[in-house]
Amino acid sequence: MKKWFAWLAIAASVLTLSSCGYNDFQAKDEATKAAWSEVVNQYQRRADLIPNLVNTVKGYAAHEKDTLEAVTKARAAATSFQITPEVLTNPEAFNKFQQVQGQLSSALSRLMAVSENYPQLKADTSFRDLQSQLEGTENRITVARQRYIVSVQEYNVLARSFPTNITAKIFSYPVKPSFTVDNEKAISTAPAVNFGK
């Protein structure tokens, strides 16, 4: 009889532990870290392309000094931001990272607008190649962000669902922040297009 109760207790423990979700947390946590690493990897690729792009534009647009300096400063800020595993669990640090990358994106947009004023620059093969690489990198960043968002969503669903939310509290698996945009309200309004001017 004692053996029967012992086996019943073991079976109950196994069933309880198998539904606690601890291993699922390990898998989802690692998936979010891997997805985040890919986001950072693509941002680094973009940062590595920028000096070549700036130098190519510099030769054609010497009087566009302010734009070139803004890109250089934004790149320096983006590459100096320390990306640690804590960024994934600290919403303030995560927002700061997003702001720095957003400033770099904005500066790059201004640089691309400047290039429109220089037909010779647009015809330069090295500039076109760099621009193409940068566009491809921006697409890769978008894909990496999307994968990270999905990964965080799966992790957060696990962290907030019963009974795995109990495991999340016991083993300190907090809900992770996802990507947001600073100007969500502004971009939700459709732009006005007027061809009459």
UniProtKB/TrEMBL annotation:
<keyword id="KW-0472">Membrane</keyword>
<keyword id="KW-0812">Transmembrane</keyword>
<dbReference type="Pfam" id="PF04011">
    <property type="entry name" value="LemA"/>
</dbReference>
<dbReference type="InterPro" id="IPR023353">
    <property type="entry name" value="LemA-like_dom_sf"/>
</dbReference>
<protein>
    <submittedName>
        <fullName>LemA family protein</fullName>
    </submittedName>
</protein>
<dbReference type="InterPro" id="IPR007156">
    <property type="entry name" value="MamQ_LemA"/>
</dbReference>
<keyword id="KW-0732">Signal</keyword>
<comment type="similarity">
    <text>Belongs to the LemA family.</text>
</comment>
<keyword id="KW-1133">Transmembrane helix</keyword>
<feature type="signal peptide">
    <location>
        <begin position="1"/>
        <end position="21"/>
    </location>
</feature>
